[in-house]
Amino acid sequence: MILIECRQGTPEWLQARSGACTASRFADAVSKLTRASGDKKAGDRSGVSDRYAADIAIERISGIPYGEPPKTWLLDRGHELEDLARIAYEARAGFLVEETGVVLTDDRKFGYSTDGMPEDGLIEIKCPIDSIKIATMWRTGDVSEYMHQMQGGMWITGRKWCDFIMFVPDLASVGKDLYVKRIHRDDAFIDAMVEELLAFDHRVQDFEAIFRMREAA
Is residue 30 assigned to a domain? Predict the structure, then answer.
């Protein structure tokens, strides 16, 4: 495990992730078609997965981040609210948590951007804008959208649990500003996911070979 200490959204953070498949995109990396489309059948890799593999291949060649940069206002909002969410979580949990940076596998092919690494666990902070998504989380507690990211973080860091945190300060007056749900490590889920991620990495290598291939004379 390689830890690169940096603040999310900084040039150093973007560079640390360059060329790696990151946990926030693990679900995209392993995504498959649910129905036939064109020359592909249900169960084949999705276009999103292929595009992500090609993006990473370009990063491994160039050594720098590739693609559309994150929107600045979203990053600024996220950083500000994540800091506040961390403080609110610390008050509830009774211990301090610090953002630590990017954790990479030893081969640097996979990575996880940490929101915090308390004791033997992790925290994953979300500060959504979508009011329906916020209401749905309070109503159902369904975190399946983030399961690959959280289990991926536990895989890379070796941690035993991850506290999912949703922070919406606008709901503080009704006591719904902080939602916390603990997700425990699921080794069966991780084993299946890693198998698919390794297959994804082979496709990254295939794209890299295509980009490096000399044109026939």
Answer: yes
Domain CATH for 170: 3.90.320.10
The three-point CA angle 48-185-4 to 5° equals 65
Per the listing, tokens 């506040």 go with 84
- Answer whether residue 217 is part of any domain: no
Please say whether the beta carbons of 14 and 65 come within 8 A. Answer: yes
Closest by Cα among 71, 64, 104, 99 to 84: 99
Query: Rounded to whole angstroms, how far apart are CA atoms 180 and 161?
Result: 13
71-110 confidence digits (pLDDT tens): 666 667 777 899 999 999 999 999 989 878 999 999 999 9
Give the orientation angle of helix 47-62 with respect to helix 187-212, to 10 degrees.
Answer: 60
Mean pLDDT of the chain: 92
Tell me the sheet residues that pair with 112: 103
Output the pLDDT for position 75.
Answer: 67
Question: How many structural domains comprise the chain?
Answer: 1
Tell me if 112 sits within 8 A of 22, measured CB to CB: yes
Q: Which domain holds residue 118?
A: 2-212
User: Which one, of 94, 90, 164, lies nearest residue 125 by Cα?
Assistant: 164
6 - beta bridge partners?
none
- Rounded Cα distance between 62 and 208, Å, is 11
What is the reported pTM? 0.91
